[in-house]
Amino acid sequence: MGAGVMKKGGSGGHRRRRRGTAAAMSDINVTPFVDVMLVLLIIFMVAAPMLQVGVPVKLPETAANALPTEQEDPLTITITAEGDLMLMTTEVPEDELITRLTAIAAERTSKKVFLRADGRIPYERVAQVMGALSAGGFSEIGLVTDGQGPKMDGG
């Protein structure tokens, strides 16, 4: 790959000239390598957004704007339609929630957490989980909703 034959025609001050003396070409052809790298880059750019998974819930619809993103992956607590608690994608028993949140809060620089709750869950349950988040050391709680909901300004 990339090795070839190159004619050497040096004059070097000799009286006789040799014609057709062949020497190996020592250059590497990097074009195929670059092509493969670009294809891999495109594949990873397309596949990366699909790797983020979450717990499927039907979020309430509001007219709120999205929060700005941070450097850390956001911590997400989900309340499913059945009332189960999910810490990221792992189910957590209710009696262990504050203990796990306290341990996580000690390792993180951000005190922000996102709460996703199914729209059919009673508000009392959402308020209880918000109290547990506050007791676990998270002072900034963001409620996650769908952004295509009705606006309250009558428009």
Explain what this protein looks like in three dimensions.
By secondary structure, the protein is α/β, with parallel strands linked by helices. The protein contains 3 helices and 7 strands. The strands form 2 sheets. A 5-stranded mixed beta sheet has the order 5-4-3-6-7, with helices on one face. The chain has a two-stranded antiparallel ribbon with strand order 1-2. The model has no long low-confidence stretch (mean pLDDT 78).
Rg value: 31 Å
**Quaternary status of these chains?**
single chain
- The proportion of residues forming helix, as a percent range, comes to 25-40%
Cross-sheet strand order for the largest sheet: 5-4-3-6-7
Number of helices: 3
Arithmetic mean of pLDDT? 78
Q: Strand share of the residues?
A: 15-25%
Structural class: alpha/beta
* Cα-to-Cα separation, first versus last residue: 66 Å
How would you characterize the largest beta sheet?
A: 5 strands, mixed
Q: Count the strands?
A: 7
Task: Name the shape in a single word.
Answer: elongated
Low-confidence segments, given as residue ranges, are none
The ordered string of helix (H) and strand (E) elements is EEHEEEHEHE
